[in-house]
Amino acid sequence: MELVTLNNGVKMPLEGFGVFQIPDLVQCEQAVLTALHNGYRLIDTAAAYMNEEAVGAAIKKCGISRKELFITTKLWVQDANYKEAKKAFQTSLDKLGLDYLDLYLIHQPIGDYYGAYRAMEELYQEGKIKAIGVCNFYPDRLTDLCLHCEIIPAVNQVECHPFFQQNEAMLVMKEFGIQIEAWGPFAEGQFGLFTHPVLTKIGKKYHKTAAQVVLRWHIQRGVVVIPKSIHEERIKENIAIWDFALTEDEMKEIAKLDLGHSKIIDHTKSATIKMLSNLKIHS
């Protein structure tokens, strides 16, 4: 597994395992255990996924040294202010059964995220978090935060896949030294990704699936990926991407698939902000 060095010197795996949309705690725990036993060391969860306890249970059972693991969780909109962010952080830490986090992210650029980020800066300075960052911060919001914070985010986790390649966003992240991480690296199965003719043609050359080609494409762009699956065969397949490399021409061929915008969620729409703001994860 290759590592990337974040802007504060912390090393982060380029590939990890995500648990979005695995609300069944038994199923989630088993999936994480399967991932850990097959070489994954980065596990990405969130308070809003409602499965931090299952991730924590898997960590406890896996038999792998804590120092070898890279655990990420996220602060939800409901707790996006200075006071509540500190409470929410401790709640997540307790559910995970850990005494520190490797990465803590603001899940959405909504609410008093400046207050929340100040709280995270303090937790980082206290050594309770190895790195802090954000999710879904598009170039305008990310630039604004970077110009008015004490600690530049180490990571920005955004939607990124062959049909929304985030080229402009990546340039802004590079300017500030921020690592891009992709959620939805498979475009949530849209656009016929798993059987797409361009991707399957490339995969045939290397005896790889379209999904493996996509993950390799991400890695070669320097994008951290966190594919999710509850199936052991797919979990193993998704990490078997380190024994081949795409050519420059193949990278360019995939680059042509970019639509330049999301078909999954539009954070510029009023309805999206209302929907995310109204989603409560606790009383």
Structural account:
The protein is an alpha/beta fold and 283 residues long. It has one domain (12-278): NADP-dependent oxidoreductase domain (TIM Barrel, Alpha-Beta Barrel). 41% of the residues lie in helices and 13% in strands. The chain has helices at 25-37, 52-62, 82-96, 113-125, 139-147, 167-176, 197-206, 210-220, 232-239, 248-255, 270-278; strands spanning 3-5, 11-13, 17-18, 42-44, 70-75, 103-106, 132-135, 155-159, 179-183, 224-225. Strands 3-4-5-6-7-8-9-10 form an 8-stranded parallel sheet. Strands 1-2 form a two-stranded antiparallel sheet. Strand 8 (155-159), helix 6 and strand 9 (179-183) form a beta-alpha-beta unit. Helix 3 crosses helix 4 (113-125), helix 5 (139-147) packs parallel to helix 6 (167-176) and helix 7 packs across helix 8. The radius of gyration is 18 Å and the shape is globular. The protein starts with a strand and ends in a 5-residue tail after the last helix. The mean pLDDT is 97.
